[in-house]
Every structure is written in C-alpha cells, then in structure tokens.
Amino acid sequence: MRLVFLGVPGVGKGTQAEMVSAKYGIPKISTGDLLRAGVVQQTPLGKEAKQYMDRGDLVPDKVVIGLVEEKIGTSECEKGFILDGFPRTVNQARSLDQHLRHQDASIECALFLGASEETILERLSGRLVCSQCEESYHSAFRRPTLDSVCDECGAPVIRRRDDDPAVYRRRLKIYQKETAPLVEYYDAQGVLRRVASDRPVEAVADSVRRAVRGVV
Questions:
Q1: What is the pLDDT of residue 20?
Q2: 63 within 8 A of 45, measured Cβ to Cβ
Q3: CB burial readout 107-133, b (16+ within 10 A) else e
Q4: CA distance 28 to 16
Q5: What local confidence, expressed as pLDDT, does residue 193 receive?
Q6: Beta bridge mates, 113
Q7: pLDDT of residue 134
Q8: Which of 52, 112, 124, 171 could cross-link with 6 by S-S, CB 3.0 to 4.6 Å?
Q9: Taking the CB of residue 71, how many other CB atoms lie within 10 A of it?
Q10: Is the dihedral of CA 122, 177, 5, 64 positive or negative?
Q11: What is the pLDDT at residue 216?
C-alpha cells in the first residue's frame, strides 16, 4: 500500500495517516520528521538540509526528495508507506513517480481530506506541540496525560506558532498556489479519493478505511 494524504494545513492529514499506519502496520513518512532525523544523525542530506534550516530558508526540492527516496527505499517500507506532507508540489510528485517507476511501483491512492475554513480554524485553536521533541497533541481529542507536559519527553507542551489565524491564512495562500494542483494531478491518474473531514475523527477514519480498502 503506497498512499499520499492531501489537504489544506490543519485538515487532519497527520491524525488520519497515523491511524491508517497503526491499523495496517505501514510507516507514516513526514518530511518534517525526515529532516529532523537527518540533522540529528548527520547524514549527508541531513547536513545539507541543516545549512538551509539554520538560515531560515526553505530546504530545496532536491534535498527533500532525496530524503524521501532514501526512506522509501528502506526495508521498513517494503510493504508500503503513507506520505504526509509530501509531495507539496506537482514537481515533487513527478519526481516521486519517476523514482517509483524504477522500482515497478506507483502511488496507489491519494486521499484528499476536505473541510471548511471555519472547521479548520476551530481545530487549529486546540492543536498543541511539545516544545522539545515536537510530539503532537490536541486539547479536544489527544491531550497529554499530565496537563501541559509531553508524554514522550516531559517537556512543556505549547500551542503551535503557525496555527495563529493570520499565519494560517498566509499558509493557505501558499497551499492554494503550490499544493492544490496535486488534487488534479492525482485525479488524472485515477487514484484520487475524496473524504469529507469536517466530522468527528472516528467518522472520518471510517471513510478513510473504506477509501483505502481496495488497495490493501
């Protein structure tokens, strides 16, 4: 099973991807996690990424794509993978497709999660993140065991800076310009599935499971 999760920031891609990962035992791949791991492990691509990150610049496509290709080539991904936050552009999607073709593989399902801006802003208001290890939480449906303290490392849990409504709207403009075209890209390949995400988490999860059932 090779899946891509699509949707605007805050729509619930990460939550749903984690649930599918847990159910089917297939790793969820986040570019943010890959970048942090590469930096910590001081891999060649991690070192290159760190140069951009330290300057506050965007990590270029060739580095991000390289990290993803390295990951999906590991034994951990032999049975498939779930991509969350990648690809972000059609150019990245084409590079991914080309890489998979060399392995006689392809993306089998691209799940587009859709919700209203009002719903997303409401959800964002409850999102929390560990200030140290960046583990994700939510005040409504995934609170840390001890209030404001990360279950994983014990550091303070805070609100994400990029969830401020003004910041979010700027992120949304970037999404509409760079990432939204991926919906049409995967639809043209016949692998797009749409799921309404403005419902309770479990109801969305049921729809996601039905959408991916045919590719399991």
A1: 94
A2: yes
A3: bebbbbbebeeebbeebbeebbbbeee
A4: 10
A5: 95
A6: 195
A7: 78
A8: 112
A9: 21
A10: negative
A11: 61
Q: How far apart are CA 44 and CA 153, in angstroms?
A: 27
Which is it for strands 28-30 and 81-84: parallel, antiparallel or unpaired?
parallel
Active site members: 13, 88, 127, 160, 171
Residue ranges in the chain modelled with pLDDT below 70: 56-58, 162-163, 216
134-187 per-position pLDDT tens digit: 788 888 778 899 888 999 999 999 887 766 777 777 778 888 888 899 999 999
Distance CA(27)–CA(83), nearest Å, equals 9
Angle at 180 between CA 216 and CA 159, to 5 degrees: 85
